Amino acid sequence: xxxxxxxxxxxxxxxxxxxxxxxxxxxxxxxxxxxxxxxxxxxxxxxxxxxxxxxxxxxxxxxxxxxxxxxxxxxxxxxxxxxxxxxxxxxxxxxxxxxxxxxxxxxxxxxxxxxxxxxxxxxxxxxxxxxxxxxxxxxxxxxxxxxxxxxxxxxxxxxxxxxxxxxxxxxxxxxxxxxxxxxxxxxxxxxxxxxxxxxxxxxxxxxxxxxxxxxxxxxxxxxxxxxxxxxxxxxxxxxxxxxxxxxxxxxxxxxxxxxxxxxxxxxxxxxxxxxxxxxxxxxxxxxxxxxxxxxxxxxxxxxxxxxxxxxxxxxxxxxxxxx
Length: 323
Known about the structure:
Number of strands: 17
CATH topology of the largest domain: Nucleoside Triphosphate Pyrophosphohydrolase
Largest sheet: 8 strands, mixed
Mean pLDDT: 91
Low-confidence stretches: 1-5, 98-112
């Protein structure tokens, strides 16, 4: 895999990688789109409810990319061109409808199954850290477009069924000609540290015991990112913060978020928890966090998340191992 670290962060943001040109200028060229689809070199990602076909290669994985002749029927979305000029599309359809033949599909990353050459259906949470740059970028893009299209079939103004245009990047209402574009919801995610250089980790009520992470929340209308950081921390745990510092961003298409990572300094440390959002919150020194992880008391977010990168950047080293 070709993975580079994000500037300012310790380690890569695994869902912020790509190796394609999105080729926006080609989306409105209907003749080019048809020629590209007819090209035997063109490759297709089949995506169904955020899942795609994945082939295991030992500890890594790769997308199963189909030719257009083997792709199932479904909505098509242009993803772009690679450095060699090969076009990539996504098709929203169940892989079970594909005309081609593949290895038996099993449950995602079933540990009882042999890994080498195994074909599975899996999503970004399971395989995002195992894919190379090209495949990771293609799958994030395809999943995000499929999720938006699945919930925007009808015009919000008149209720008419909309039509897919511009290679899957616009939906147009045939009745009032209004255009509707894929949504991205900005969300801030922040590691809060205090003057003793402890970090704040918390658990939502819906999470299992011991699973802790940094705080996060959606940006509200008319609000800056820095204001959102301060508001969310205050609302969720009652801590005041200052000096919000941007660290990096990562798409999180579950279904349409863009996670904007920050560090911020706490100017107060007493907790007042919003019980609907936060079940528990704790301050950790580096030694305390490592000891809690080694004992099994604390488990961190997955490697594919920006939350994990923020924690590791504060800690100063990768936090590896079966926590």
